[in-house]
Design a protein that fits this description.
2 copies of one chain form a homodimer. By secondary structure, the first copy, chain A, is mostly helical. Helices cover 68% and strands 0% of the residues of chain A. Chain B binds a DNA duplex (18 and 18 nucleotides) through helix 3.
DNA sequence: GTCTATATGATGATAGAC
DNA sequence: GTCTATCATCATATAGAC
């Protein structure tokens, strides 16, 4: 059976198994539903409908709801994005504009629809799902704030970072999840101008402890 | 039937109907479960067990899970507490220490176990339950921030208040719900010193718009 | 006021036909 | 790879006996 490629454009030697795009469709749909409804309220049936596939296929590909959630919420390239943002403006680090840089990074990352859905999904689920809470803590700590904290030399760097984290989490919650107005409708620029200095103070300013820069 | 009280200490004229304490036990237990698990994960069965009553009684008293939730999350005396906090230090308002006052009020209100449970329950549920989100918005806006915003004369008072709200929400989320360290273990005093000035700036400082106090 | 029994429905998961 | 059929479990809610 040495059939040549002939008019058959797609395959080199017969049709390869798997890979019909269904798998990714399920993943994308699950991100959407998890972001909109949180872990518990997003049912596998809903996700299957959104992806246009049969519910049984979801199990077939991902085994369980938990596994699907973990697969959907894992985005490998965040550290890269953050690193690039940090490198893009190296002077800001030395110049005491770290807070502004962080604010800009958060707003910038938010442009990416997939990242946005992942983050909202984690936020939504973190409060009712223990696993999601752990993933969110890792997400925030080891990537975004881990990298930024390492640029601080303060002895209470951890405390400072957790304060900044509280403001960032609050921003995401109020602006993107709860949609509190008028914050939700403000431009990214405005938000950066408003939040940046607050983050700067948390990270390197006087926060009422010993090691303030007054 | 003019029977006198006689030796019957408890009742004036025979035993009054109802009121065995069960109703309040259910309410208290539901606050606990809603706070710990959020609206969806807290089942009526769980609540009944926590209250030491039969699940059917919960329905009997409150009709539905929604009604129970609404009853549990409604706390009438918040405006009073806030008002008292504001009156307790009238000079702070004039002196530009509104942010500190707000931070102190939040931390203070958090001392009350019932209030705390209500707030956490609302926060937990707001992200997955539309009704709870609406209640939280009202809770925050009409009581706490409504009263404080009215003391501002800035034209962008709403924007400023929503910024402050984002920080307060983030504080509650990070410190009390997600329990991000070391913020979660910090003392109330430390938190007030750290957050207060940030709130002050949002409410009356330079936030990058026209109406800043530079 | 309190509880037993049950109606009714949604969910995650699995086995197995095509 | 895909789908039908089904299981077991858990939920809210209700009717009615004591």
């Amino acid at each position: 059976m040495n059939e040549p490629d002939g008019g058959n454009r797609r395959s080199r030697r017969g049709r390869r198994p798997g890979e019909s795009g269904t798998r990714n469709a399920i993943l994308a749909a699950s991100r959407k539903r998890f972001a909109e409804q949180g872990y518990d309220n997003a049912s596998i049936r809903d996700i299957a409908v959104a992806a246009g596939v049969d519910p049984a296929l979801v199990h077939h590909y991902y085994g369980s709801k938990e596994s699907l959630f973990i697969a959907a919420m894992r985005l490998p390239n965040i550290p890269g994005l953050v690193g690039k943002a940090l490198e893009s403006d190296p002077e800001a680090l030395a110049e005491g504009r770290l807070g502004e840089l962080l604010a800009r990074t958060v707003v910038m990352i938010w442009e990416d629809k997939t990242l946005q859905r992942t983050a909202i999904g984690l936020l939504r689920s973190a409060l009712t799902h223990e696993r999601a809470a752990a993933m969110l803590r890792d997400f925030v700590r080891s990537t975004i704030f881990g990298q930024i904290a390492s640029t601080l030399r303060s002895p209470d760097a951890e405390y400072r970072v957790s304060l900044a984290a509280s403001q960032v989490i609050g921003l995401l919650m109020a602006r993107y999840v709860l949609r509190v107005e008028p914050l939700a409708s403000a431009s990214g620029q405005e938000v950066v101008r408003a939040i940046g200095p607050a983050l700067q103070r948390y990270l390197a300013g006087d926060i009422g402890t010993d090691s303030g820069t007054a």
